[in-house]
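Posting for a labmate who doesn't have an account.
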Amino acid sequence: MATSAVARETLFSLRRTIARIEGTLPERLEVPLDSQQSDDGDIVLRHNGVAVPKDPYVPTGVQNFDAALGGGLPKAALTEIHGHQTRDAGSVAGFALSLAGLMLKRAEERLPILWIGTHEIFQEAGFPYAPGLHSRFGIKPENLLIARMPKLVDALWVAEEAAQLKALSLVLLEIRGNSQRLDLTATRRLHRRAQLAGRPIFLLRQAAEPEPTAATLRLVISPAPAASRQTMEGALDGSIGPPGFTVRIDKSRLARTGQFTLEWYADDYAFEERRAALPENTRSVVSASDHRTDIAQASGEVLAFKPANADAALGGQPSREERPAHRGNRRAG
């Protein structure tokens, strides 16, 4: 018992030291009183004397991903969702909206979502498409509020004030690049508001480098190539499956680092993990001949359309005048 108590006190001391280094709010870990002890004698985690609920996480439904996160995404906390490049803005927003749709699906009351951003954010990446929100994420247009602010300091102020409103289910703050305004103090205030309100705040970082913040979790999102649609007879060649996200756990106090490929199924409003594809079978179906040593020639160029003079051209290849048209860039529309 003495050894267990010493180890427990050492663990609490290390957590307080890590919280102080990261600039996060201090947490008090206390042994409950006799009247409040659970049957198994578990330790109750308290924030400023207020006990944390037994289900502090939002599970994504992907077993391996939730296990790596320690149970899921934290409910009452600031979560950072990163995109290293501007072209990843669509994947970052799509992943955040997928999480929002998943939370609304499980919520008892569908409260609105507030999306906050600056002029340059919506000018670069555009506004969410209302019909697509409903069909892809289950978010009705009337359940999404957008606040377009002229400056970052205004967006931070709106996010802090909105985080304490009970009429909202989620606050998304989208910021581009690395700004001095978004320091430890600013993120600490956001994290504190999320803790008091008991609702999450998603901080979307577009084209930004990781830097110290008070967020308890940082996820780095990038687009994953879409796989083929699966049928009862296997993969359907030439088809495009559900959107995929490459999710890397970059920072977490409780989770372990790792990378996952998640797919979002709009019909069920659910995530699924994409398993690694099996290597193709490169073995020959027919055994090689024993008395022949020559190797078959490589196949010729494959054309999208058969040229009119294919029979006259040598080997069915296009004429010199037709080659530039076949090799040019494909135009949309």
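Reply:
Got it, the structure tokens are right above this. The mean pLDDT is 76.
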